[in-house]
């Protein structure tokens, strides 16, 4: 039991030092793996769930990290981020 507490504490401590995108990726991948494994009852389902959850978590974390920014394209078609206009 003590090993589990130490392991969870170490994981929480490591996750606390990550950016919102990294946290979202880790939480999404872990949750996706659990759900995918439970639904399919296989390692393959857990792997697919981890990938899908990681991608979704990364997108959500990125949007939280860049709140108030919009994506624009310049005249050459390159994408860039800048503050959204306030109306």
UniProtKB/TrEMBL annotation:
Q: A Pfam family this protein belongs to?
A: Gly-zipper_Omp
The record's keywords, sorted A to Z, are:
Signal
Signal peptide, first to last residue: 1-22
Source organism's superkingdom? Bacteria
Can the keyword Zinc be found in this entry's annotation?
A: no
Q: Which residues form the Glycine zipper domain?
A: 24-65
Q: Is Methyltransferase given among the entry's keywords? A: no
What is the recorded name of this protein?
Glycine zipper domain-containing protein
Q: What is the lineage of its organism?
A: Bacteria, Pseudomonadati, Pseudomonadota, Alphaproteobacteria, Hyphomicrobiales
């Amino acid at each position: 039991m003590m090993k589990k507490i130490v392991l969870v504490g170490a994981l929480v401590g490591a996750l606390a030092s990550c950016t919102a995108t990294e946290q979202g990726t880790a939480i999404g991948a872990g949750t996706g793996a659990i759900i995918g494994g439970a639904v399919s009852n296989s390692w393959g389902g857990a792997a697919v769930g981890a990938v899908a959850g990681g991608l979704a978590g990364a997108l959500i974390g990125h949007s939280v990290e860049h709140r108030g920014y919009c994506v624009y394209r310049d005249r050459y078609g390159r994408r860039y981020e800048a503050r959204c206009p306030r109306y």
